[in-house]
Amino acid sequence: MGDRITVEEHAEHVAALLAPLRDRGAAETVPLLDARGRTTADAIRSAIDLPPFRNSQMDGFAVRAAEVAAAPVALPIVGEVAAAPGEPPALEPGTATRIMTGAPIPPGADAVVPVEDTTVDGDSVTIRRAREVGEYVREAGSDLAAGAELLGAGVLLESRQLAALAASGLTEVAVLSRVRVAVVSTGSELVAPGQPLGAGEIPDSNGIALQAAVAAAGAVVVSAARVRDDAEELRARFDAAIDAGAELMLTSGGVSMGDHEVVRDLLEPLGAWVGAVAMQPGGPQATATYRGLPVICFPGNPVSSQLSFALFVAPVLREIAGLPVARREERAVAASVTSIVGRRQYLRGRRMPDGAVEVVGGPGSHLVAALATADVLVIVPEAVAALAAGDLVEVLEL
Amino acid sequence: MGDRITVEEHAEHVAALLAPLRDRGAAETVPLLDARGRTTADAIRSAIDLPPFRNSQMDGFAVRAAEVAAAPVALPIVGEVAAAPGEPPALEPGTATRIMTGAPIPPGADAVVPVEDTTVDGDSVTIRRAREVGEYVREAGSDLAAGAELLGAGVLLESRQLAALAASGLTEVAVLSRVRVAVVSTGSELVAPGQPLGAGEIPDSNGIALQAAVAAAGAVVVSAARVRDDAEELRARFDAAIDAGAELMLTSGGVSMGDHEVVRDLLEPLGAWVGAVAMQPGGPQATATYRGLPVICFPGNPVSSQLSFALFVAPVLREIAGLPVARREERAVAASVTSIVGRRQYLRGRRMPDGAVEVVGGPGSHLVAALATADVLVIVPEAVAALAAGDLVEVLEL
């Protein structure tokens, strides 16, 4: 067993172990509609002007500004341009052309008079208000010139970014590859959810929790398994995960002080750090490298396992995926709280309508149902033994 | 054309048109790992106690509390219980049983002494600290009793909720069906992104934008199309969308004051409301019912279309899907801004490191590339003609 280290020290160890994943820069090209929630691998320049051609900002009349400077001015209406394919004919001097929003400006025209500022009488239109050159005209490239950067590298793609890519004529985009993650739940007491429970058996919830949390952090699960407390069985799963292309292994269970600690038994001889972090829940933790694969090991208690992922691994995976980090804020605790000096306590909390945060469930690391009703972690610092109702405390959004 | 209505009036019209979708309660059962981001259709009770059996919270020794009340007390070690299948033998009076975290408490034992408070000497253990009855014992059902509510109806499922469902032995969950949405972009000038552009043609970005935004709002696109300004072509698309099971139709384009307004031409004779909302961008809007299908019509300008979805439809779809609403907050504007009195202006903005919000691009509704660099909408109220640098303004997170 190593020494008891701080939360920050462990977070640094994990981040250092995962740094090669952050720096690998692997990219893949996907269709735009599959790219939502992904992150651009490179800066993207528009191949075309946006908009591609000079067009009208309004429904109205295309004119020569100089000819309507002395408005009101009556002009014969010659032609009509819709937002439709084709080149419009040139605007004859001394005339106005009816034009629709988005339609190309006829050569010769240099302003658009909105329909609201005109009066039509048969084949003639009275322009009631003078317009400057360029008014209500969208110049080609006025949103973005061809060759200019449309999106930078590392940009999270949501609908508005995908729209801009489509507007520039793209159908696919190079995005960072998702980190490929393997998940192993360890513990002879575990059975697949849905299987009948014998004496001493519990359904494996860590497997589902970690798989769902990995996906939420922008990574992808390539291998998921459940093993008994048998180091050779665990070794086989690690090897299989490597064969499946895993870049990161996450385990739950088998790292505490008991005599049957399968993860410790496999990894400690290979140079793993196995120790304790000054936090509750989640004290026992380990980090290792197995055949080049970074391995992050969480305790088996379900709350410990889920919190450890959220605190140590999710921030790194989210950064790699370009996702925003979880929000931290200060809130008042709704009722008094006691804590253990020397450990950072992560209580489960729920934000209340009055803005305070209520602690749900106790500190026990088995309270998986209570965790499901929480929306924040309430962080009680190491030096604090008690908080009174109304005291401010840092909370981390789940 | 109807009158000019307020943003709130239009939002109410849209919400009323979509109310049947909110109240339809359609559910489907999906495996836990497919349920992330979905919403529970019904309250869910646990069929089993959580935890299912009385177990140890620590690695240590199971004892009778009364026998260690006068600690230090030395007891012979008899047996060992791991977290593994099977019933442990009863604790013989006057002995201690070695026990692991999560292992079942032997019948007769009523407390666990953590290993840190013990000294082992061969087959004997000295308990150095007295323990109360129940200390470090997790009672069956202490997290949640069998039959109690595990999750309510309408709960968004994230990893911690899925973990709780798995812990109670479930493998699947009934979730609200996603609203099935059809999207049609109208405009003869539109071509599929990636196709060569002829004169007067632009790539259709609204189709991609709305499809991605629908998915982000927790609904599902069942039909997506692009039509020229031809009312019969549009009618055929509406009919096809109904055949595809659409519950909601979204259109872009064809609702303004021009002479070629395909959406207006099709829907106004059927009793649609086609009018203007006192906002910029996004003034021209329409709502209709086509063969029982609610239809929400946005303007064709890409910024107008995306903002209209975000303001009027996304909140309703997100509520149906149980997703959190977009955050609104007050921020200072980084530079002065002018606006049009009588319209609510939605400028595109970016939050800066100092907390202020910077307006990006101009007010033009064609600035699709500028929108892609924004992360908030800056809302300038109808009565405001100008804001000075540092003035507070409401911003809506995109």
Automatic annotation (TrEMBL), chains A, B:
GO molecular function, one term: metal ion binding
Enzyme Commission numbers on file: 2.10.1.1
The keyword Magnesium is assigned to this record: yes
GO BP, one annotated term: Mo-molybdopterin cofactor biosynthetic process
Pfam families: MoCF_biosynth, MoeA_C, MoeA_N
GO annotation, cellular component aspect: cytosol
Pathway participation: Cofactor biosynthesis; molybdopterin biosynthesis
Cofactors, names only: Mg(2+)
Domain MoaB/Mog: 182-319
Signal sequence bounds: none
InterPro entries assigned to the protein according to its UniProt record, in alphabetical order: MoaB/Mog-like_dom_sf, MoaB/Mog_dom, MoeA-like, MoeA_C_domain_IV, MoeA_C_domain_IV_sf, MoeA_linker/N, MoeA_linker/N_sf
Keywords: Magnesium, Metal-binding, Molybdenum, Molybdenum cofactor biosynthesis, Transferase
Family recorded in the similarity comment: Belongs to the MoeA family.
Protein name: Molybdopterin molybdenumtransferase
